[in-house]
Design a protein that fits this description.
41% of the residues lie in helices and 7% in strands. It starts with 5 loop residues before the first helix and ends with a helix. It comes from Pseudobacter ginsenosidimutans. Its main location: membrane.
Length: 504
């Protein structure tokens, strides 16, 4: 199905009771949008519906985070079986000898699912300027900025999946349509560079509109912008604007700009964006307390394995345990069904050089002696009740990545290594700082290793490898990068659905 058609079939998600109970309703083309968008609450519910749809397992609830995308990075053990083994051995590429035709049932929903949510955002954006008078305070700017920024974010995600990287020389290669209006016309397939120009345009506009975001101002948001955390949040150091992290907020716009400029290879502008977040980091995104990063057996009500206080943008996924059962933690399924055991945790593939690293000691669970399975997203239930603002989340942007981006962009390696050590020291490696005399080459190796350690299960390593156009095909490089599959260079670019190209 052509992506432009999603403007006719896109589903808005609304509620008659609360923002937690969403139902798909009539297609946008048949909706009386004047009724939906007649109040601030209607706009908020429409945005909440977009976020709810993004949590589905075919999107950020599994496949575009710790599922397919993480598997493609080669981080999981070679013993995996079934569909995920096909992903890891790049059987999703039509040009590969082991191509599996059934793969489209896994990959096409990524393309169609994201474009459906882009359509919903465009439906909102088409009406908001004419309804400016219904908003109180600065809520018009914030809601518009949030929708505009999220639309750019989703296009950028698609570009990174379906377009070649700049580093591979793919700037002028057709990649994705950038759909920024409701239309029945087929949208043109833009080159990587043309699409990136529109992504940056919308992110810059989003950043300006969101300047008074409560997340930026450090104020309590009105209910229409975000519900407050639980009643006891203040005693745990959780700020009143905490739940704005589940929305595309001011800092999410800046962080996505930093990613976009890095993708282009524009280190000057990427560093400027990163530094703006780092300047506010201690006040807005304090480092997680080590006492909250504990194994499931030692869980407390404050268990925080996804670093909630460091999260810039995240999704709340109520069914996260169901989505990962039998894949990355020991749920109700058999041990033999563990398809996604991180190679980084194995004896032969470890990239953790310190015995005190929290990410190794507390974010993996060992079974049968040698099998270690990530428990990062496993939400403890039963005897211990973990507070809601510390669980059921998948982070899409975290502070650590901003420090790594700054370290890549900083020309002086003696300064850049301090950015990397800022993260390492909070992960139990305060007694193992990098050498003040570290070279740029060695620092880049450390940054790559940090992506491997820090973002297990989040999909970010694959994007890092693609952005750098790393050659992981040789056995020698496989050993260096601690990957478990022989990577084929053409596998960095996902194939678009057949009818996207066939009907243009």
């Amino acid at each position: 199905m052509k992506s432009s058609k999603y403007f006719l079939i896109a589903f808005l998600v609304i509620t008659a009771v609360s923002c937690k109970k969403w139902l798909d309703v009539k297609p946008t083309s048949e909706l009386d949008r004047s009724e939906i968008f007649s109040s601030e609450r209607g706009y908020r519910e429409a945005l909440t519906g977009v976020y709810a749809n993004l949590t589905k397992p075919e999107l950020y609830g599994r496949e575009t985070t710790w599922g397919i995308v993480e598997c493609m990075a080669g981080t999981y053990g070679a013993g995996m079986a079934g569909n995920y083994r096909t992903f890891a051995t790049y059987g999703y590429k039509k040009t590969n000898p082991n191509y599996w035709t059934g793969i489209v049932t896994f990959f096409n929903p990524i393309w169609t699912g994201v474009y459906k949510q882009i359509a919903n955002l465009n439906s909102l954006l088409e009406t908001i300027d004419g309804n400016k008078g219904i908003f109180s305070g600065d809520n018009y700017n914030i809601v518009k900025g949030e929708a505009l920024g999220l639309r750019a974010y989703l296009h950028f995600e698609l570009l990174c999946l379906y377009g070649p990287s700049y580093a591979s020389g793919g700037a002028n290669t057709p990649a994705i349509p950038y759909i920024d209006k409701l239309t029945t016309m087929i949208s043109p397939m833009l080159t990587v560079d043309s699409a990136m120009g529109l992504i940056i345009r919308d992110l810059e506009a989003s950043k300006k509109l969101l300047v008074n975001d409560p997340m930026h101002m450090g104020t309590t948001p009105p209910e229409v912008l975000a519900p407050l955390p639980g009643s006891s949040y203040s005693s745990f150091g959780v700020a009143s604007y905490h739940n704005r992290r589940f929305n595309f907020n001011y800092y999410a716009a800046i962080a996505t700009l930093a990613r976009a400029y890095m993708w282009k290879g524009d280190k000057v502008n990427a560093l400027l964006q990163a530094k703006e977040i780092m300047a506010d980091q201690s006040a807005r995104f304090p480092w997680v307390k080590s006492t909250r990063v504990v194994p499931p057996t030692a869980a407390t009500s404050e268990q925080d394995k996804t670093y909630a206080t460091e999260t810039i943008f995240a999704l709340n996924i109520k069914l996260i345990n169901d989505y990962q059962d039998g894949l990355i933690y020991q749920g109700t399924k058999r041990l033999s069904s563990f398809a996604l055991c991180p190679h980084a945790y194995s004896t032969s593939g470890t990239i953790f050089e310190g015995s005190t690293d929290l990410r190794k000691n507390n974010l993996a669970t060992s079974y049968s002696g040698s099998i270690a399975v990530s428990n990062k997203f496993h939400q403890v239930t039963g005897i211990t009740s973990v507070y809601s603002f510390f669980q059921e989340r998948v982070p899409l942007i975290r502070t650590a990545e901003i420090y790594y981006i700054a370290a890549e962009c900083e020309s002086d390696p003696s300064v850049a290594r301090l950015y990397v050590d800022s993260v390492r020291s909070k992960r139990g490696l305060a007694n193992m700082p990098l050498s003040p005399a570290i070279t740029r080459t060695d620092l880049d190796i450390e940054i790559r290793k940090e992506y491997q350690k820090e973002f297990i299960g989040e999909g970010r390593l694959w994007f890092f490898q693609k952005r750098k156009d790393l050659d992981l095909a040789s056995a020698a490089n496989q050993a260096i990068y601690k990957t478990s599959a022989m990577f084929l260079k053409n596998a960095y670019v996902l194939d678009r659905p057949d009818d996207e190209d066939g009907n243009r």
